Amino acid sequence: MHLVLFLIFGGLCVAGALNLLLQRHPINSALSLIVVMASLAVLYLLLGAEFVAAAQVIVYSGAIMVLFTFVIMLLNAGKEDRTHGSSAAYLVGVPGVAALFALLAFIFLTQRDHLGQARLGDYLVTTTDLSKVLFKDLLLPFEITSVLILIAILGAVALARKEH
Amino acid sequence: MSILVFLLLSILKVAVVTVILLTAVAYTVLLERKVVGRIQNRWGPSRVGPFGLLQPLADGIKLFLKEDLMPTGVYKPLYILAPMISLACALISIAVVPFGATVRVRGVDMFQIADLNIGLLVILGITSVGVYGIALAGWSSNSKYSLLGSLRAGAQMVSYELALGLSLVGVVLRASSLSLRHIVDSQAAHGMWSWNVFGGFQFVAFLIYLTAAYAETNRAPFDMSEAETELTAGYHTEYSSMKFAMFFMAEYANMITVSCVATLLFLGGWTSPFGSLLPNFGGRFIIAILPVFWFVMKVLFFLFLYIWVRGTLPRFRYDQLMGFGWKFLLPLAIANIVATSLWLAIRGG
Questions:
Q1: Which residues of B touch A58 (CB under 8 A)?
Q2: Average of per-residue pLDDT values in chain B
């Protein structure tokens, strides 16, 4: 059951990502990205991270992607022209991606025993467990991250302010 | 319990709840027309059936038989998809709402489709996805009224979602759970006095929730996205027949869901307002049904409030609406969180 769901939503995620790149209209690409975000949420859920899954849907599919579509609608972005791409992308990009893929695959395969294992549907991280980690064990990094985000928000406000 | 029995009972539950919800949607429309009619000193629909009770049926048939127009220049895939997204998101969230106390028949909970640990977050998530229905409808219609309506709706829903989500944190802190059943159980001790809105001192959160919920469902006085005096009909200007009906149904289904959530979080859900003052009477059946009765009464109260507000208050101006959401409701919701956590921390020691 878990495996079937994983295959379905993993496939949906990859298909959405490919569609995102292949579509020529920005709004279709944005919608594909929403599909990717939503299927990622299901994958989190399969790994037992229910809070992260809900947060993924609320924050990414719900809030951030709405802003994306909002901007596309506001600018009335039309169809993009398809180009053949730059030669630099072919020369450096393709070997670079291949090298990165090989490196990651090598590390995951050789260091398998040290990475720890989680099987699909094995356990459930409740919100209580998660908050214990966030507010007790990792309190300092958590607070520093929130301050960082606060600074980013203040920066955005300062940049967007009208000059008087 | 075999998986087959579980599946059959679950499908049965889903079917029953969907039928009841859609009927409730139809009759909420009638209720609205009746009550707004009385507020404006006229009768409202009274011709079809006794007291106009068959009016929803006639409306349904009429909408179903209308010609389904497809204007030229629309972006077809999204134009067709948008009402479906709207209606689907409006109908799904009822699945996590518990209507009554836990009554198990063959191990299946009778008054709730799915009891999730994160029920509240699921409702918020589905609501936040529902914005796409309106946004895409306006954009794909290729009409200025639709686009303006959906831009307004998008900005408004994203803004008020923050205040709405933050207003719920106080309740969650008090119940220390995101499960809707646990939240209701945390208010069940002394009848009305332990409800979050009274004894829980969450009335500020209650008012924020109510205001933000009206904005989330695009209802008066926040119905900027379909302000007929300036935008014809807003995001669904170009829609006709069943596609229009789907938006219409989605709006009323959202109203019902929002009322259910308000009942669960602030008015003690299915618990009786009299607590243990009212002795248990009747057999097992009455004891199972009575909580559902209280739940429905509270939801009806909220629906009536919705209609009353619509009949009474004029529409906001758009900049006032955004200013109100960001500069007043949001800080107030944060202040409520701080106050509630302080209170809980001091009391908890």
A1: 121, 124-125, 128, 165
A2: 84
Give A120-161 pLDDT, tens digit per residue: 666 777 888 888 888 888 899 999 999 999 999 999 989 988
Is B173 in the A-facing interface, judged by CB distances under 8 Å? no
pLDDT of residue A164: 65
Cβ contacts of A70 on chain B, cutoff 8 Å:
135, 151, 154-155, 158
A127-143 as b/e: b if 16+ CB within 10 A: beeeeeeeeeeeeeeee
Strands (DSSP E) contained in B220-301 are: none
Residue A118 has what pLDDT? 66
- Cα Rg, chain A, nearest whole Å: 20
DSSP B97: -
Phi, psi of B104 (to 5 degrees): -100, 130
Which among A70, A73, A127 has the least Cβ separation from residue B118? Answer: A127
CB contact under 8 A, B117 and A70: no
CA gap B184, B39 in Å, rounded: 34
pLDDT in tens, A80-89: 777 777 777 7
pLDDT digits (tens, 9 = 90+) for B163-208: 888 888 888 888 888 888 888 888 877 777 777 777 777 888 889 9
Mean pLDDT across A22-39: 87
Q: How far apart are CA B205 and CA B99, in angstroms?
A: 23
**What integer pLDDT is reported at residue B66 of this predicted model?**
85
Q: Which residues of B touch A55 (CB under 8 A)?
A: 121
For A72, which residue in chain B has the nearest alpha carbon? Answer: B139
Query: B162: how many CB neighbours lie within 10 A of its CB?
Result: 17
By residue count, chain A amounts to 164
Question: Is the pTM for the entire model greater than 0.90?
Answer: no
Interface of B with A in 78-117 (CB under 8 A): 78, 116-117
CA B304, B309, B311, B312 dihedral sign is: positive
**Cβ contact B25:B252 at 8 Å:** yes
Whole-number Å distance between alpha carbons of B244 and A122: 45
Nearest CA to CA, how far is A14 from chain B (Å)? Answer: 21
Complex-level ipTM:
0.78
Cβ of B151 within 8 Å of Cβ of A73? The answer is: yes
What is the residue-averaged pLDDT of chain A?
Answer: 85
CA distance B99 to B110: 9
CA distances from B187 to A68, A136, B49, B267, B345 (A): 40, 28, 42, 8, 19
